Amino acid sequence: MAKKAFLLSLATLPLVKTETVLGLYIFSRHGDRTPKALAPTNLTSLGAEEVYASGSYYRNKYVASDSTSPIYGLSHDVAALTQLAVTAPVDNVLQNSAQAFLQGLYPPAGNFSTQELRNDSETTAPLGGYQYIPVNAVSTASTSSNAENSPWLQGSSGCDNAVVSSNNYLSSTEYKTSFSQSADFYKGLLPVINSTFAASDATFKNAYAIFDYVHVATIHNQTIPASDLLTDQTLFELKVLADLHEWNLAYNSSDTVRAIAGATLAGQIVEALNDTIAGKSKQPLHIQFGAYGSFSSFFGLAQLPTVSDDFTGVVDYAASMAFELVTNASVSAGSYPSADDISVRFLFSNGSAADLTPTAYPLFGQQETVLPWSTFVSEINKFAVGDTPDWCRVCGVTTGSCASSSSGSGSGSDSGNSEPATRAPNGSNISLPVAGVIGALVTLAVVLGAEALIYFFTGLTLVKKSTLAASTAATTPGTKA
């Protein structure tokens, strides 16, 4: 009787709704690399391992068949290329980091890649079924190749107004004070860095480049000149000065164009998540690799420094932030939740996710870590730059790809609607699938036109394959019709 009473009491308890992850957007920094002061930079073996481990963490949480928070409809073992979009700038360090991350996310398929042939033999793809997942180059006005070789944060942004804004910091009283107060500190480091930095370059102006050079040396070099100078306090001060320098180049609350990298990233995030909702999770996973400056400027725009001062520092190697699309509504092949039933959760890990479990933080000065989709869209669109015309307008650029962009384009705020976003990245009003069809038809027309000219001038004629086979059979001895 007691057992029956217990079961009856359980039946009266309210059902706990199970949360479903409908989609995920990951933005990650590259792994350990060689110093910028000794360009060209290259991803190290340690760096590849860092991002590989991070990819493995995300696999265990979201992708594997026994994952703790499986993404709805996502293939578990063999990557379905239509389900994920991976991007990185045309940069050696970032592209290679993305590839290493993907091998952790979707490792070699093993038995899934073994096939039995007609002659009863079996064949397995190379490297145990290594999965070839393409990393698409980010193609926007705000990116350029070899971004990791640039020692200056805005060196590859291409945004004129952002460059002017960052330069304003370099002429500010705040900068000049930091410069003068740190002069003796950098002068004292010359025995450590004088093989690369001249005395005139050992200043706060090169705060990040000097920190980066010493930081890499402390990881990789067996011997360092005058290493006794590199006390824990000295290393800490190097990091603090580099953080201060780079933060002020990346974000300014009264001149937000300085944070163009974060604004552009925000536009990409909301568009990708919107596409996931509009497509009912047909493409639920988006992954992008980028530089630390994008983290810093996004953090500033999203008001994350009000949560913790840690968000004003340069993020560590393999750091990542993720945006989960979640719902407590029922999800099935015939039932997909409406936008009103979907929310967004932001998570951040300041290092490889395998070592530092991503933690949820509240965005936009909100109290909750899980925001309704409508709230997320409303808040992020206050600063997101959604397309090329908008970027050109904000940046004050009128040359190159901006020369043909419409100056009257909106701010990209409609990318947060529950309906599919229809703008292509080039700012046109043609969606990517439609643009692809149009391109294919144009190509077909050109090919057919060329063939028509060849037939006209050479006197050739088209013959059906069956007619040709019959003709050949009739004139070739021993051939069956």
UniProtKB/TrEMBL annotation:
Record keywords, A-Z: Membrane, Signal, Transmembrane, Transmembrane helix
Pfam families per the UniProt record, alphabetical: His_Phos_2
Signal sequence annotation: 1-18
Protein name: Acid phosphatase
UniProt family annotation: Belongs to the histidine acid phosphatase family.
PANTHER family attached to this UniProt entry: ACID PHOSPHATASE-RELATED, PHOSPHOGLYCERATE MUTASE-LIKE PROTEIN
Region (Disordered): 401-426
Origin: domain of life: Eukaryota
Low complexity composition bias: residue spans: 401-418
UniProt keyword Nucleotide-binding, yes or no: no
